[in-house]
From TrEMBL:
The gene is NOC3L. Residues 212-306 form the Nucleolar complex-associated protein 3 N-terminal domain. Residues 66-78, 158-172 have a biased composition (Basic and acidic residues). It comes from Papio anubis (Olive baboon). This is Nucleolar complex protein 3 homolog. Residues 409-443 form a coiled coil. It comes from the Eukaryota.
Amino acid sequence: MKARRNKKQIPSFRKLIKTSKVKLENKLKNKQFKQQSTLKKYRKEQRKLRQAVKDAVSKKPIPLENPKEKRPGKRIEREEEEEALPLDMMDEDDLQLMKDLGQRASFLTRDLSSSEPVHAKKRKHERIIDKYEKIPRTLQTAPEKELIHLLPIKDESGIIPQTREKPVTDSNKDEEDQEEERELEEEITEDPIQELTIEEHLIERKKKLQEKKMHIAALASAILSDPESNIKKLKELRSMLMEQDPDVAVTVRKLVIVSLMELFKDITPSYKIRPLTEAEKSTKTRKETQKLREFEEGLVSQYKFYLENLEQMVKDWKQRKLKKSNVVSLKAYKGLAEVAVKSLCELLVALPHFNFHNNIIVLIVPLMNDVSKSMLKTFLCLRIKEVEVKKDTEDINKPKKFMTFKEKRKSLSRMQRKWKKAEEKLERELREAEASESAEKKLKLHTETLNIVFVTYFRILKKAQRSPLLPAVLEGLAKFAHLINVEFFDDLLVVLHTLIESGDLSYQESLHCVQTAFHILSGQGDVLNIDPMKFYTHLYKTLFKLHAGATNEGVEIVLQCLDVMLTKRRKQVSQQRALAFIKRLCTLALHVLPNSSIGILATTRILMHTFPKTDLLLDSESQGSGVFLPELEEPEYCNAQNTALWELHALRRHYHPIVQRFAAHLIAGAPSEGSGALKPELSRRSAAELFEAYSMAEMTFNPPVESSNPKIKGKVLQGDSFLNEDLNQLIKRYSSEVATELPLDFTKYLKTSLH
């Protein structure tokens, strides 16, 4: 029988399979719950028994109740009432029992574990005592654990109750933790941290930043020296994107972003890395092949994590929510996001063939959805030089169609179909692997792109002529005007002239309109019979409105317009118009900065070569009909042939040496050879190139000035490399060369800029 019972208790293997692990755990918990409930009942009855015995000894017949439910106030009242009861009110049996208990003093010293009855008359008490005395006692070493009853689980066998132990807080541990915290607070108060001054803080930050830079440089050098062996160091370098030191966190993160970008550009292969198949993973390979696979796998994974980090930086900037554990301020989010976007753009340009290039496009393109006019200026970066404008985009570069199965079946044999299929498969793979696209496909892409750009430009011209986007539109039209279809020329010129005549445009925007109009007319517009005299008139009267300060905003546009309007259209320009423009340009050169004067004088030199009869402006004795009218806004009727270029003599005494050379060269008649000719570095450059080459944007002399002091002769006088006496000598030397005293404003400017 025992063996059978044991077999029933141990579940079979089949039963274990059917019974889930959760059910077995529930059954075990149910069993433990039942055991605990029986123990609780046993302890409760034990307490009641002890209380009954104590009451019997102390002659206080109190009913067996839970001592926790008792209240001290009621108990005291009950004791007073019991003490107040007289003995004559008690029953005879009770009095006799109390007397017998008083005579038997051994009751107080008797061992309660013995099963000897107290009196034979009370059979009920005897049975209760015997029952509890026979149960083995267990010592309670650990405190009782309270259970929390959860929702039951129902299965095939029935409802299974669920319980969980209530966590017990140890008061001793809490006291120890509080004592430790007090000790730490005392230590902190005893040794306060010394506050650093601003200078000390800056020095400390500089040291930290230098250490981080050296660490970044060491990791980058190790990766570049052997990428396959040190690919794991990319992870260490990428972990610095989470720099937590608030003093250098922003700077270090920017440096790491740029460093990783340059590393990926250098170590990334020239092909796309595809994931390995299960068959390729299971096959055995050589050590070199396995090493290459590990390198490619690590490179792709780190490149992916790096792109995810950049994406998160952009998202943080968009959300503008400060993280709790972040050490970067909200203001720094914008700088980090800018560096991240620039790095993404660099990677897209440098690695268009590599993995995740589509993901980068998806991340960058939504950022263009902005009302800022700088977004529209990105169209100017399109490198589109030619498009197919004669045909529709649908007719351009029709893709090669492969034969269908029905066509192959009709015209080819079974063996030919097999070879044709293999040939088409190979051709598709070659097209996918080809990095550079064909010229026809590129032409189609350029045409479709430019059509979208022109639709955007024309929509703004038609519906938002007073929008701040108009300057970017006009600048874009000026660049791509030679690619516009001839059908739109008439309407576009009318719109541009209307914008100029409205007076709502700034001088710079009106210059863009003029530039766009002449770009249209210089290309396919030659076949059109259009008189652009109104655009010449507008440019002629706009020249004196140019900004003569440090910005030089419109001078570069004017130089480009003059090249298109006068030099390239020399056959359509009259001599009177050329004379008027040369005279006004020389007058303008007196008022602008040196680099602008050089560009304007270089344009004047080209015009004198293009129109040789304009040399009459160098002869003061020549006379013609009428009087020169400089205030007249029509270049054809201002009688410019009756004046002379006296401005060149003033420019010959200019403080800038290159302006002096150009002025002397033009006075001599702009010769190509001889003593009056220019040096090759000046004569071979265009006006726009000279304007950029001699820019004074950094508020320094360009070219730098040499000292007249023999002690430091040949050295450049810039910054702190000279004394005040050398500065005075410099001013005196310039004064003697130009034969006039320098203006007071220029003397102050010279001292402040050089100091």
